Amino acid sequence: MSGHKLDSIDRRILAELQADGRMTNVELARRVGISAPPCLRRVRTLEESGYILGYHASVDARSLGFEVRVFAMVGLQSQAEADLSAFENRCREWPLVRECHMLNGEVDFILKCVAPDLSTFQSFLTEQLTAAANVASVKTSLVIRGAKDEPGVPFDVLEQRLTREA
After folding, report:
1. Which residue range forms the structural domain that includes residue 15?
2. For the chain, how many structural domains are there in total?
């Protein structure tokens, strides 16, 4: 992040775009209470400063035929930085791995995976993940159903904290 300090309008812009990244700049400006040209300048500054990482459509994996979601907990043989980075790079190459997070504790990484069916995931698990260099153990949990999947951050919590600090 650059030294750009967020004010309340910047935070409202971020919250609105997080909720609906497809709205026009004119609509965004209306919602945050400023005119369109300064709103666009602020959005560009937020992008350049790294607060906005990109714009994505939220797609329904099941309707596209990806019926299986699995969390894989991976333990590595070595936790040397070079080995951790090598594993992270390998995860970026696997299309079925949608998220990869390094953890503190007994498990080194948790991976969120999607697959069209169990046999596809099993093939990935046995032929790629468990066979990868430095992987010592993999434990998997099949998702039965999801109750919540909210991207981003809770801006209302941020605003409450800032109000208490003021």
Report:
1. 8-57
2. 2
Whose tokens are 């992040």? That residue is: 1
- Residue 151 in any domain: the answer is no
Q: Are residues 68 and 137 in the same domain?
A: yes
CA–chain centroid gap for 82, Å, is: 23
CA-to-CA distance for 78 and 88, rounded, in angstroms?
A: 13
pTM: 0.86
For residue 108, the 8-state DSSP code is: S
Residue that is written with structure tokens 């919590």 in the block = 157
Express each pLDDT in 88-138 by its tens digit.
999 999 999 999 999 999 999 999 999 999 999 999 999 999 999 999 999
Q: How far is CA 108 from the centre of its chain?
A: 18
Residue 20 within any structural domain of the chain = yes
